[in-house]
Amino acid sequence: MPGTETAVFEGEALARYGFGHGHPFGRDRLKAFWDEALTRGLDDRVHQADPETAQRQTIECFHTPRYVAEVQRISEKGSGFLDFGDTPAFPGVYEAAATVVGSAVAAAEGIMAEDWARAFVPIGGLHHARRDHASGFCVFNDCGVVIEALLRDHGLQRVGYVDIDAHHGDGVHYGFEADGRVWTADIHQDGRTLFPGTGKADERGTGAAAGTKLNLPLKPGADDPAFFRVWPEVEAQMETAKPQFMVLQCGADSIAGDPLTNLAFTWQAHAHAARRLRKLADRFAGGRLLALGGGGYNRANLAAAWCGVVEAFTERPEKA
């Protein structure tokens, strides 16, 4: 089993993925997390890794070449929108999005190489981007690229993906809907009340992948007791999957007080998810566990949630 070190990717290049003019996904999100991490002394408990930028062929593990070329073109233009109005272009948006992907892939590669056992990339988890278009603040889907790279480059046959962002991870779900090697469990606000309007409980995967996808939609206002009621279903899904690598999308917009959503978790839900998935990763995946920040637009909430995840990753093994 790999060592117990946890890597956290942090740096100005990663913070460049953000939008100006009062957009909820601003460039200050990384600083909000890292300032809190420093206050808690987490910098002394983790390996600080520098951001990396993905090459085009890596991005095309998941995305179509035509779409990647379109992002490059719009990035050079530096204006307009990459979707229907949520995801504005800016000069260098291609490079910023490629850095999110590159950092997530580097984190996963470091885990596979046993440079560290677990890793956290705070500006990541862009789970709405589809293979051929942007969506919901997400230009490139780093989750999808990481999963494809694990399947293609490392020959893994079972990857587990857990998503606790308030929004359904539609880009991941539909990107792998028919792929039985990818097992997902997604706790989110009911799509009838929140973007992107997907993630019904009966969406369980298609064809040979039927049953490999689990959606757990919750009503607006669902709090920690609601989270803890459905959480055992997540663990049961992952125990059935017996994944060789685990990915956690730990969006903090599911915490009470987020300006864009209506769930009411506390940061303790995120810490619990990280702690329990760490145990499952130790059982099935040789400890291999990657967390990606995802959404979260209340800065105090995202700082508390993501620090809770890192603390769970760095606890002594007997507490995990």
Describe the structure.
The protein is an alpha/beta fold and 320 residues long. The protein contains ten helices and eight strands. The protein has an eight-stranded parallel β-sheet with strand order 2-1-3-8-7-4-5-6, sandwiched between helices. Strand 4, helix 7 and strand 5 form a beta-alpha-beta unit. Helix 9 packs parallel to helix 10. The longest helix is centred in the N-terminal third of the chain and has 20 residues. The radius of gyration is 18 Å and the shape is globular. The two termini are 15 Å apart.
The averaged pLDDT comes out at: 96
Q: What letter string, H or E per element, gives the SSE order?
A: EHHEHHHEHEHEEHEHEH
Helix content: 25-40%
The beta-strand count equals 8
Task: Report the span from N to C terminus.
Answer: 15 Å
Largest sheet: 8 strands, parallel
Gyration radius, to the nearest Å? 18 Å
By DSSP (H or I, 4+ residues per run), the number of helices equals: 10
Q: State which percent range the strand residues make up.
A: 5-15%
Strand order of the largest sheet: 2-1-3-8-7-4-5-6
Low-confidence stretches: none
The helix/strand class is alpha/beta
Q: So what's the overall shape? A: globular
Question: Can you lay out the helices and strands and say which pair or pack?
Answer:
Blueprint: E1 6-9, H1 12-15, H2 29-39, E2 47-49, H3 56-59, H4 65-77, H5 93-112, E3 118-121, H6 142-153, E4 159-163, H7 170-175, E5 182-189, E6 213-218, H8 224-241, E7 245-249, H9 267-284, E8 289-292, H10 299-314
Helix pairs in contact: 2-10, 5-6, 8-9, 9-10
